[in-house]
Amino acid sequence: MEIKNLTQVKNYNYGLEKTFESAKDFLPINGTDYVELYVGNAKQAAHYYKTAFGFKDIAYAGLETGVRDRTSYVLVQDKIRLVLTSPFNPDDEISHHVRMHGDGVKVIALWVDDATKSFEETVRRGAKPYMQPTVFKDENGVVVKSGIHTYGETIHMFVERKNYKGLFMPGYLALNTGYAPGSTGLKYIDHMVGNVEMGEMNKWASFYADVMGFANLITFDDKDISTEYTALMSKVMTNGNGRIKFPINEPAVGKKKSQVEEYIDFYRGPGCQHIAVSTDDIVFTVSEMKKRGVDFLYVPGTYYDTVKDRVGIIEEDLNELKKWGIMVDRDDEGYLLQIFTKPVEDRPTLFFEIIQRKGAKSFGKGNFQALFESIEAEQARRGTL
Fold first, then answer.
1. What single-letter DSSP state applies at residue 296?
2. pLDDT tens digits, residue range 149-165?
3. Cα(158)–Cα(117) distance, rounded to whole angstroms?
4. Which is it for the CA torsion 351, 356, 359, 364, positive or negative?
């Protein structure tokens, strides 16, 4: 929506403030601490994320550090931390996860000041425990971790690191392989999207509201997110300071199989559909990632015919955005630029969104039609639509 007057902006800001106020912030969260993916081969996955996405080595745990059941590589880019973990034991939880889901997000770790209180408060409100508060120590200090179950086999880990001065956490050694292709300009995690079965969206939105004190920032129904063939519904949940945003998607009835249904079929249940990562220069980020072999969804050239009418004045060259397939949308706060990768593994499951916010607080509602048609085209090529 184009900004028309100052009152419109003030009203929108007031609405956001009331949303954040309605989040019962008994669970203060400082930000995303790390995201852990269970993968088939962590060494090779680390090479991919360094090469294609511009991450760099920071830490490692495995046989050389006394860990006998797994290997984990920790990668960073600005404020984003990825942990890539592979199993040694064919019968343990990690192996089961990889067999069932392929490479996928297991842990969404949240940085908190008090991991014990976070665990106790959420469990008291109905969360299923995953890890009791546990202290990890080394010469660099202490990290406290605890965890709860969420949708599917996804875990929220609470990480308290105020008394730790090391690179990552106890049990990990510094790692520098000497291979560092360079940053692609990614800054931090903007939001992470969960896909759940039909009829389960409200259940998990209530979980985030009642158990974690989140508020519903915005709701999209099947009229907002639909094409001729498929539809879905989504509720965006946010914590009290707005640093954590979790859209929860469920499929809606349509003529054909939606992207959420395809995900659930191949992931074998609910899980994290995509990770949205922020950049300050989306043209640089996308052009750099394409050079490195990342595949993005195709946006029809006709999409750009109406962008100026719909979005208004933007700083970027529209021809440059069209060249790279970057979409634009506006809300009362400003505008955003976004683009979506194709799935980053052979199963049509996890993918990434690259987003640059120029004031906008929304999620690109004006781009839903073009985005879903692009996804449906990919589904048709896979024979899963």
1. B
2. 999 999 999 999 999 99
3. 10
4. negative
